[in-house]
Amino acid sequence: MKSEAEQVLRVGDYEFPLDRYYCSYRNSHLWLRMLDDTTAEIGVDAFLSETAGRFSYLSVGSERLERGRNFATIESAKFVSRLPAPVSGEVVELNAEVVSNPSRINEAPYHSWIVRVRLSSPEELEGEHMLRDAERLRAWIEREIERLEEE
Amino acid sequence: MESPEYVQTSTAGAITLGLMKGRFYRGAKLRALNLLLTYRDGCTGGCAYCGLSRRRVAGDSFIRVEWPTYAVDEILERLEGREVERVCISMITHPRAYGDTLTLVERFSAEGGLPVSVLASPMLIRSPEQLDALKLAGADMCGIAVDCATPELFERLRGRGAGSGHRWEQYWRVAEWAVECFGRYNVSVHLIVGLGETEEEMLRTVQRAYDLGAEAHLFAFYPEPGSPMQEHPRVSLEQYRRVQLARYLIHTRLARVEQMSFSPSGRLLGFGVDGETLLRVVEDGRAFMTSGCRGRDGEVACNRPYGNERPGEEQLRNYPFRPEREDIEGIKRSLGMA
């Protein structure tokens, strides 16, 4: 049997490793992976990175994240996504490599974290928009694929 | 990979045809496919602001984005069933461009089944008969990229000052021939706002084009990295909004440039209409949409989503869709009306 770190959910053309949370709030398509009990890294999932086009600009505006408030903006040539923080906390590290070369996210979304955060309210991980369960994640991504097709 | 077998298309075109991954912010839809002739030795022009200029030392963007090259056969195949209203074939200044444009107009008109515009390169058009031939091949609209609002700017940025063969008089001569050939307002004159002209100079040129029978289609200057004008500042949002609004008033015959007032430095002060009319036009929003060739439905087809700005900017220069309430509030702020 595969370990959690090896399990990957595939929905359509998109893959979602099951060792992390996915944030469905405002369809932000962020992932959050716990590094220890209080520290997590946050990045963009495969759905957003594969549908938005090659990212050319990433700006991170806050040192403190407040759940639901935009903390970063990511852009491709024709699309922009303002990213709401999936959790509250303090930014302890910014991935300068990814900020200066945001197309790294397109190449490897799950290895291209944007910020590392010390969570101030770990209970936020239990919020309704934090998806970890494969079936709930699948249902949301299927809705997202449908929404994209209707655009 | 050269024309006429291959062409370049804009990033927006490539996304729309499914040739490139990507999507459009706010659900914008590309309504006209822009194609650019392509040759190994490139454009012979040296225009100081242009991404295609032979004087460019680095970078490969054109109008802010990359233009990948594809086989014409593949583009025609993928056009089928797409919600595209028009195809525009842009010549570049190259000895083969006129003949290849004829070939491509014929193909896209016959096989693509869509209205076709030609963005003609006036230095390659030596007689009105050449335009007649493009029309006969299937083009129904014609654009002339004058770009600069005054003869002095033109001469400096794309004429002798740029070591280039473009001539202001020839551009306007071809615009006149095009009106004769394609009919009034089936011709457009492209103008780039922010190359160093005053608002008055720009609007006098807009009026000149309109009186001639050509629509003026506006672009907001965006510096291309590696071009001689890479350090030139972008046109301010405020200036661009005033020019957009005044252009719209001229095009809807609500005002002429002679009725507008300008400061001694050429800044637009009065739009030549009463306050109520002005407010109505601003709130309608259409004045701030991209100006371009029309589709079969009579609405602008060449809407160039995010061609003049990054999608994440606070306000779009050219809206590829009708601005919404929040957009209008921002526009009013730029115009000092809020």
What topology does this entry show?
The complex is a heterodimer of chains A (151) and B (338).
Chain A: E1 8-11, E2 14-17, E3 21-23, E4 30-34, E5 39-44, H1 46-51, E6 55-60, E7 64-65, E8 70-76, E9 80-84, E10 89-94, H2 96-100, H3 103-107, E11 115-119, E12 130-131, H4 134-150
Antiparallel strand pairs in A: 1-2, 3-4, 3-12, 4-5, 5-11, 6-8, 7-10, 8-9, 10-11
Chain B: E1 6-9, H1 11-16, E2 32-37, E3 69-71, H2 72-79, E4 86-90, H3 97-112, E5 116-120, H4 128-137, E6 139-147, H5 151-158, H6 168-182, E7 187-193, H7 199-212, E8 214-220, H8 237-251, E9 261-262, E10 268-270, H9 275-284, H10 325-334
Parallel strand pairs in B: 2-4, 4-5, 5-6, 6-7, 7-8
Antiparallel strand pairs in B: 1-2, 1-3, 9-10
Helix pairs in contact in B: 4-6, 7-8
How would you characterize the overall build of this protein?
The complex is a heterodimer of chains A (151) and B (338). Chain A has one domain (4-145): OB fold (Dihydrolipoamide Acetyltransferase, E2P). Chain A is 22% helix and 36% strand. Chain A has helices at 46-51, 96-100, 103-107, 134-150, and strands at residues 8-11, 14-17, 21-23, 30-34, 39-44, 55-60, 64-65, 70-76, 80-84, 89-94, 115-119, 130-131. In chain A, a hairpin with a 4-residue loop joins strand 4 and strand 5 (39-44). In chain B, the strands form 2 sheets. An 8-stranded mixed sheet of chain B has the order 3-1-2-4-5-6-7-8. A two-stranded antiparallel sheet of chain B has the order 9-10. In chain B, helix 4 crosses helix 6 and helix 7 (199-212) packs parallel to helix 8. The longest helix of chain B has 16 residues, at 97-112. The N and C termini of chain B lie far apart (52 Å). The relative contact order of chain B is 0.14. The mean pLDDT of chain B is 94. The chains are: A alpha+beta (151), B alpha/beta (338). Chain A binds chain B through residues 50-54, 57, 73, 75-80, 82, 148, 151, and chain B through 11-12, 15, 20-25, 27-28, 64-66, 305-306, 310-312.
